[in-house]
Amino acid sequence: MPTFPGQIDSKLPHVGTTIFTVMSRLALEHNAINLSQGFPDFDCTKELRDLFTQAVNSGLNQYPPMAGIPILRERIAEKMRRLYAIEYDPEHEITVVPGATYGIFTAVATFIRPGDEVILFEPAYDCYQPAVDTAGGKPVYVPLEAPDYHVDWRKVHEAITPRTRMVILNTPHNPTASVLSAEDMRMLEGLLRGTDIVVVSDEVYEHIVFDGHAHQSATRFPGLAERTLFVSSFGKTFSVTGWKMGYVCAPRELTTEFRKVHQFNAFVCNAPVQYAFAEYMKDPTPYLELASFYQAKRDLFRQGIAASRFRLMPSRGTFFQCVGYEAITDERDTDLAVRLTRERGVASIPVSVFYHEPRYDKVLRFCFAKSDETLQRGAEILCKI
Ligand code: PMP
Ligand code: GLN
């Protein structure tokens, strides 16, 4: 095996393997119920699989247009109009990308120069900081406030400086399952008025908001929409996380710059998957019914562990449930997550890893995008702890 003879000045010196990979691997090793990594353990619909196969068998296998096939971009425009009453021009304002992670990374690479400040809310989904670091930007952290992980907008106001170039929002929020309200969005709108700050709004769980509430997309608020790159993922919406496809909607000026980077990065994404989604999205039912589908799973899991010693925290959106374990042990969440996987056969995600300096608040995250039987078996084990 060849070895590199020189010095490597790592751009990400503190980064190891992601917690999702670590915990899923450990779950597999110990044959544990995997409630850690966020992916469904059930398949997507047969209809969607058939559409993909048909596209492959029809020879739709060469490079599609750089921004995505036009009919899929039309469908995305229809969805944005229907849900958020906003018009995006499919030609100039919608780009299909190989996953939300890629969309976020490319947005950061497009707009962040060395020394630019990027506001992140902590706990933060794990891909934001590495994207900012790779671009030479400076992450500026605003903590979400206990116990419900709300935003203190005074702190955001204080965090904004003349060097702030970007705010990365995430609602519904991974890992805390909190959601931003219309009032939150209006606060941000007010704070950013008159600035050149760009918003990257990670809304991959846009269709998974519970208890009858409407998703407050940044695109609903004109003062935000004008500066926002809205990022979503088909993986979450249609239960095909392995297909890795998402999309970015943004004003033409922002999209033009975004595509300059995209065309030299991925250039295009998987053609047959795009044809399958375009056909599948003719019917809005699958994404309109997603919230009630996951709400039933949330309620099943919550009822299942209600009698346990874990403290249930609110789950207002996403397919995650956070729990406090202060009544059980003083261990660090990273140790407890590993021990529960090895000794009790149930895997979770320790929430401390979503902070740039770990905060041991004794919180674990469980994913309930799993079959009812798996959730019941997982809950039974948790009740014995
Ligand atoms: N953002 C958040 C908040 C997520 O939870 C995930 C994980 N699915 C992503 C982005 C990445 O989505 P994708 O798999 O489409 O890259
Ligand atoms: N978003 C998923 C989660 O939060 C995992 C995606 C990944 O493994 N990168 O669990």
Ligands: 4'-deoxy-4'-aminopyridoxal-5'-phosphate, glutamine
Distance between the termini: 46 Å
Helix/strand class: alpha/beta
Radius of gyration: 21 Å
| Unreliable segments of 5+ consecutive residues | none
Count of β-strands: 14
Strand residues, percent = 15-25%
| Average of the residue pLDDT scores | 97
Query: Sheet bearing the most strands, described?
Result: 8 strands, mixed
Element layout with pairings:
Elements: H1 19-29, E1 33-34, H2 46-57, H3 70-84, H4 90-93, E2 94-97, H5 100-111, E3 117-122, H6 128-134, E4 138-145, E5 150-151, H7 153-159, E6 164-170, H8 182-192, E7 198-202, H9 222-225, E8 228-233, H10 234-237, E9 246-249, H11 252-262, H12 271-280, H13 285-288, H14 290-305, E10 311-312, E11 320-324, H15 333-344, E12 346-347, E13 349-350, E14 363-367, H16 372-383
Parallel strand pairs: 1-12, 3-4, 3-6, 6-7, 7-8
Antiparallel strand pairs: 2-9, 4-5, 8-9, 10-11, 11-14, 13-14
Helix pairs in contact: 2-12, 3-12, 5-6, 5-11, 14-16
The chain binds 4'-deoxy-4'-aminopyridoxal-5'-phosphate and glutamine (GLN).
Glutamine (GLN) binds at residues 18, 20, 37-38, 174.
